[in-house]
Design goal:
This protein starts with 5 loop residues before the first strand and ends with a helix. The longest helix has 17 residues, at 88-104. A hairpin with a 5-residue loop joins strand 12 and strand 13 (212-215). The protein has a 9-stranded mixed sheet, sandwiched between helices. The protein has a two-stranded antiparallel sheet with strand order 2-3. The chain has a two-stranded antiparallel ribbon with strand order 7-10. It has helices spanning 27-35, 49-58, 88-104, 113-121, 130-133, 142-145, 163-168, 231-244, and strands at 6-10, 12-15, 21-24, 39-43, 61-64, 108-111, 126-127, 154-158, 172-175, 182-183, 190-195, 201-206, 212-215. Helix content is 30%, strand content 22%.
Length: 246
């Protein structure tokens, strides 16, 4: 049997039904990676460098998932008054894992917060609140307001010379939208390859041979519901990871 590549997915932190702290993540990420031929592995948050290093050595690729706002300390900006909830432990854990993966060439796929984390880890910045900082922007919380991740909110216009356009076989795709932060200054060695009609950055890709792609929307909620074309994203990403494990 061919070994499935192991895709690490950092956990988020929340309160359980008794008020204690719990670590986990949405099942939709796990099922998307499983269906694509990978083995998903949830990575606990930790300030112990030895723990994070040990977890990092197990994985073949890194999927940075959605979650709370990244604190602007990570990119040396003061907090905006509309900054939402944040988790400094998650920020530190993901910054460590992302920078290790970049340094070693392990493929990275960032989704929503993960798209933003990829940009921040490499030296980029964020808009902390789209409604307050981007006049005339679309409602980028449309699907969240509907309380349904499968609800399609707007199109993404994709650069025809990008990895994503080649993967999807098209330069326009419909997507959901569940965020209030977005990429501001794109990081060195990354380029913008997808935007919504209001100019908000929806997709970034690496400009060098290292595979790193960020998607602002939540395709893990769409591939088996309202937009099956997103299946190609996960399948091709897992294939990219598999290439590095041979």
């Amino acid at each position: 049997m061919t070994k499935r590549p192991v895709i690490g997915i950092p956990c988020t932190q929340s309160r359980d039904e008794w008020g204690g702290l719990a670590l986990g993540n949405s099942e939709t990420y796990l099922r998307a990676i499983e269906a694509a031929g990978g083995t998903p592995l949830l990575l606990p948050l930790s300030d112990e460098s030895g723990v994070l290093a040990g977890l990092y050595e197990i994985i073949d690729g890194l999927l940075l998932a959605g979650g709370v706002d990244i604190h602007p300390d990570a990119y040396n900006h003061p907090p905006h008054e509309n900054l939402g909830s944040n988790n400094l432990l998650q920020d530190r854990s993901e910054l460590y894992l992302t920078r290790r993966a970049i340094a070693d060439g392990k493929p990275i796929l960032g989704i929503c917060r993960g798209h933003q984390m990829l940009n921040v880890a490499l030296g980029g910045t964020l808009y902390q609140d789209i409604p307050a900082e981007i006049p005339g922007a679309l409602n980028h919380s449309f699907s969240a307001d509907a309380k349904d991740g499968s609800v399609l909110a707007h199109d993404i216009q994709i650069d025809e010379e990008s990895w994503l356009a080649e993967t999807l076989g098209q330069t326009i795709i419909k997507t959901n939208s569940m965020h209030h932060q977005s990429v501001r200054d794109v990081a060195p060695n990354m380029r913008i390859v997808g935007k919504s009609s209001d100019g908000v950055v929806e997709v970034i890709e690496s400009t060098n041979e290292h595979f790193a792609v960020g998607i602002q929307s939540h395709p893990e909620e769409l591939w088996n519901t309202s937009e099956p074309q997103w299946t190609r994203l996960f399948a091709t990403y897992v294939q990219e990871v598999a290439k590095t494990t041979k």
